[in-house]
Design goal:
Number of domains: 2
Low-confidence stretches: none
Mean pLDDT: 90
Number of helices: 11
Strand content: under 5%
Strand order of the largest sheet: 1-2
Oligomer: single chain
Helix content: over 70%
Largest sheet: 2 strands, antiparallel
Amino acid sequence: MSNIVVRAITGVIFLIVVIGSIVLSEYSFFLLFELIILGSMYEFYTLVKKKGFNPQKIYGMVIGTLVFAANYLFANNLVDSRIFLGIIPVIISIFIIELYRKSDYAFVDIGFTVLGILYIAVPLSLSNYIIFKDNEGYNWQLLLGFFFLTWSFDTLAYAFGISFGKHRLFERISPKKSWEGFVGGAVSTLGVAFVISLFYNDLSFIQWAIVSITIAIFGTYGDLVESSFKRNIDEKDSGSILPGHGGILDRFDAVYFTLPLFYLYLQII
């Protein structure tokens, strides 16, 4: 079976799971994102360990899930803001635990432990404030629209790049990315933004178009940052759980950059 067919099958299954979980209920949304955080952080810490460092893998993953859970409870008006006071002993405990690990790179290990939380868990936690927007209850349309644009740009940029790519976008980091793919994907995704605006009218077409351009630009940077990280460790993929796509970290690398910007944009408008 060719890589393109494997990639397509995996992509379809992936879309069904993500869309179904978001649309079904707030509980399936919660479970889905917790699993994404666990999978992404596991891959991130595993890659770091391959470079010879030793972040607090399990504890970091636990903190990541708790960060998302705290934001879920607060955004859903189930607790008040005092829940975030728990971050103080958590931060202190990371340093204390490191004292007992006898690491040769203690502060590097602490840094990577914290980075996994800031890079993955914190951005994804902002999805709670999008899906529980303005105390309106559970409203999945904005978040799903965001993901449709993200997936559309990724797919269309790949298609244009494969078909017409000649001028490398950032060859030192990602030899396969091209300007043709970026421009073709960005312009085509504007069409997707128009279609989304017909169904998800919380935002106008112009507003969805601004979101699509933001995704094109900063999603590409998110992809390049993760590619740079993997290249530094001499790894092609972050994992193999998604055949044809790599790992969970690979699949959501753009989201870690663009989801916070989408949340910020919603606050501005």
